[in-house]
Amino acid sequence: MAAITFELIHKDAATGARAGILHTPHGKFLTPLFMPVGTQATVKTLSPHEVQNLGAGVILANTYHLFLRPGAELVRKAGGLHKFMNWTHGILTDSGGFQVFSLGDLRKISEDGVTFRSHIDGSEKFLSPEISIATQAALGSDIAMAFDECIPYPADYEYAQTSTERTHRWAERSLNAAINPKQGIFCICQGGMYEDLREFSAKFIGNLDCAGCAVGGLSVGEPKELMYRMLEVSTKFLPENKARYLMGVGTPDHLIEGVLRGIDMFDCVFPTRVARNGMAMVSPETSPRGRLVMKNAEFTEDFSPLEKNCDCYACRNKFTRAYIRHLIRADEIFGLRLLALHNLRYLQRFTANMREAILTDKFTEFREKFFAAYDSGDKS
Amino acid sequence: MAAITFELIHKDAATGARAGILHTPHGKFLTPLFMPVGTQATVKTLSPHEVQNLGAGVILANTYHLFLRPGAELVRKAGGLHKFMNWTHGILTDSGGFQVFSLGDLRKISEDGVTFRSHIDGSEKFLSPEISIATQAALGSDIAMAFDECIPYPADYEYAQTSTERTHRWAERSLNAAINPKQGIFCICQGGMYEDLREFSAKFIGNLDCAGCAVGGLSVGEPKELMYRMLEVSTKFLPENKARYLMGVGTPDHLIEGVLRGIDMFDCVFPTRVARNGMAMVSPETSPRGRLVMKNAEFTEDFSPLEKNCDCYACRNKFTRAYIRHLIRADEIFGLRLLALHNLRYLQRFTANMREAILTDKFTEFREKFFAAYDSGDKS
Predict the structure, then answer these.
(1) pLDDT recorded at residue A101
(2) Which residue among A113, A132, A139, B376 is buried most deeply as judged by most CB within 10 Å?
(3) Would you name the residues of A annotated as active-site residues?
């Protein structure tokens, strides 16, 4: 049996939004699912037990970072990434492509792969589909991602077409390089912001013998309507029987719109990154747009929890907004931890609520209720 | 009944080292005890539950920092420091004296108190015995410290004498300012590095009607033999029936030498500060001097825990030296947390072991065994 399979449990009657189960060598996980990001083999500020306790099933680790430090060979010697970082549930590793392409002038692309300079010590390095897959095999993640280019925005048609075709060849090379039978490989469709290229790419990737399909190159600065349109065109042509993963997306509004268009999996640094900037994610009923900036003076003597009825560690234990504001102003790490725990738990609960709405054919109501509150700040 | 009492349980037959129980409004705690430092109402990087789980009974919070931010009045409104930071065991607050005296040119001393500039916004502030005690009463700690001057080293005799006499007057004013019946006040003896002044101060402080006695002004840069001598002179004249607290001391060698000279309580930022510098505290049997610098290349492929048989979160869960080295090199906060948990747990176990040695009249053997291993690095 394949390392990774996807079981479609139910589609919301009105919208087709999907609820399923992702089967991995490290457990079964309910979808829609959000993956916290553990770039350097740790979800920033948190212990693996904390991440597990907040309900996360699969986390994402970055191949680029681990390739450079501590190196995949060290992780392999440690017994693989799960054992190295003490994480017993699922792990998805990205391909490193996104990071090396982000290096701008520090990288050179050829058909073979990408030559780049390490951001740590400036040394010259090379990543290709084969090296990326070998690296991810050594890391021992449950899901490895094919090596691709995330097309920048804006990009002209010719660039998008050339890049998408190369991503397709790299996807095939990635699958051919597979060596770890306990690992499934997801391939990524691209296509820039062009509908015909998105269709072309989704059809191509959808026909490959991969464990799952990802939609890449979105949420890169384009207007959200354009993002939603490109997503729609992509998922339309992806197979029903494989998990669909929208890469790098993690705000609640994007999660709903992704699920509406048939997405099962998400990842994003958003909840942990904004925690480090002192921001709490809350439901739009608590605050339109769902964000509290904890440094604000309004919280000085606010002895209520971040959010009523929240079951995260911070709220459950009655750490107050006033205390968290104090910690953030005083640059205390425990403040970042409380916000990271709260934000990630918020998203875990949010995806679980989406699943429940799908299973009861009430996804439309769920979505409308969310946006009525979310957009209320615009009207007032 | 007084808020704070000390029950002397046993003195080691050969040395007189003390094992006792500190009774506080928030529980009974076994001595010798080490207090982790939670300067700004948080033990750096850790949750209160983690600190409690590692066995800490009393923590120290800094009045200077909390006076400036968030302000004692806010903490009082929050229900006191225990509730504000979610800590259910004991809290000792210092007086703020040490910090304002450390400000150098930014402070002016008068008989009345100290005028200083805030390190946060430069605004002019004033602390006196009365204001310090009122602030600590508002914070609601179990133990408040009298306002004193920690005499710098070196200091000439006249300075030391003048300062010590002022500290005595301030101690009396501190006791007269007491307003919180649920709080005990400890007074601090000084005396610089002069035996006669130490004796004079210990006798004076020992005769005050305070809840406990502290020895201040040590571990300020003087040779350790001088520190031990001054400590000996001080404790000799302190009453047997009150807890004795050696301020700002927290390395294992100093703890042993302090307990040998009749000390019951310690605090120090050492274990959490060196954690943030990537250092693990281990027994001298594991490494002479008891320190591992985790960035060192020797740990690159070291898949053993920080210390065999350690029951801290990091070691119990088999986080390896190689993983912790990776986290520290990558500036990941979880690495600091693992080292803070390990170091503080090491000291909790260390003080518990000292207590056990005292109760069985084996403190001399305990001490000799420790130093034989500790000093073995010097001989090799």
Answers:
(1) 87
(2) A132
(3) 94, 267
DSSP string, B183-231: -EEEEEE--TT-HHHHHHHHHHHHTS--SEEEE-S-SSSS-HHHHHHHH
**A307 and A283 Cβ atoms separated by less than 8 Å:** yes
Hey, what are B175's tokens?
Answer: 């006791």
d(CA A60, CA A50): 16
Cα separation of B169 and B166, whole Å?
5
Give B251-291 as a DSSP string.
Answer: SHHHHHHHHHTT--EEE-SHHHHHHHTTEEE--TTTSGGGE
Residue B227 near residue B220, CB atoms below 8 Å = no
Using the predicted structure, report yes or no on whether residue B190 has a pLDDT greater than 70. Answer: yes
- pLDDT at residue A1, as a whole number: 64
Per the CB < 8 A criterion, the answer to whether B62 and B278 are in contact is no
Gap between the Cα atoms of A341 and B49, Å rounded: 15
Q: Is A297 exposed, middle or buried (0-12, 13-18, 19+ CB in 10 A)?
A: exposed
Q: Are B330 and A40 a contacting pair at CB < 8 A?
A: yes
Between strands A90-93 and A58-61, the pairing is: parallel
Mutation to test the B interface, candidates A315, A323, A324, A329, most B Cβ within 10 Å: A323
Asked whether the predicted pLDDT for residue A380 surpasses 80, the reply is no
At B19, which amino acid appears? A
Q: What is the torsion angle, in degrees rounded to the nearest 10, for the CA atoms of residue A351, residue A353, residue A355 and residue A360?
A: -170
Taking the CA atoms of residue B202, residue B204, residue B205 and residue B208 in that order, the dihedral angle to the nearest 10 degrees is 150
DSSP string, A85-135: HT--SEEEE--SHHHHHTTGGGEEE-SS-EEEE-TTT--EEEE-HHHHHHH
Distance from CA of A370 to the nearest CA of B (A): 33
**Nearest to residue A190, comparing CAs of A211, A162, A212, A210?**
A162
- Tell me the residues of chain B between 38 and 77 that have a Cβ less than 8 Å away from chain A: 40-42, 44-47, 49, 65, 69-70, 74, 77
What 8-state DSSP symbol labels residue A304?
S
Kindly identify which residue of chain B lies nearest to residue A336, measuring between CA atoms. B45
Output the pLDDT for position A288: 87
Q: Which pLDDT tens digit goes with each residue over B231-250?
A: 999 999 999 999 999 999 99
Query: In 3-state terms, chain B is what percent helix, strand and coil (to 5)?
Result: 45, 20, 40
| Strand arrangement, sheet containing A27-31 | A5-11, A18-24, A27-31
| The pairing of beta strand A90-93 with beta strand A143-145 | parallel
| CB B3 within 8 Å of CB B26 | no
User: Please, are residues B264 and B9 in contact by the beta-carbon 8 Å criterion?
Assistant: no
What single DSSP character describes residue A189? Answer: E
Given phi > 0 = left and psi -120 to 50 = alpha, else beta, which region is A345?
A: alpha
- Span A356-372, mean pLDDT? 98
Q: Give how far the C-alpha of residue B273 lies from the chain's centroid of Cα atoms, to the nearest Å.
A: 13
Is residue B1 over pLDDT 80? no
A-chain CB neighbours of B65 within 8 Å are 330
Any residues with CB less than 8 A from the CB of A211 and at least 6 apart, and which?
Answer: A2, A3, A4, A5, A143, A184, A185, A186, A242, A243
Tokens representing A240 are 């029903």
The band of B106, judged by pLDDT with boundaries at 50, 70 and 90, is confident
In the numeric block, the tokens 């003076």 are attached to A297
In sequence order, the 6+-apart residues with CB closer than 8 A to the CB of B104 are: none
Structure tokens at B262: 């009749």
Residue B182 Ramachandran class (φ > 0 left, ψ -120 to 50 alpha, else beta): alpha
> Can you tell me the distance from the alpha carbon of B128 to that of A16, in angstroms, rounded to the nearest whole number?
70
Percent of chain A at pLDDT > 70 equals 99
Annotated catalytic residue B378: no
* pTM (two decimals): 0.97
pLDDT tens digit string along A32-45?
A: 999 999 999 999 99
Host H or E run for residue A174: helix A157-176
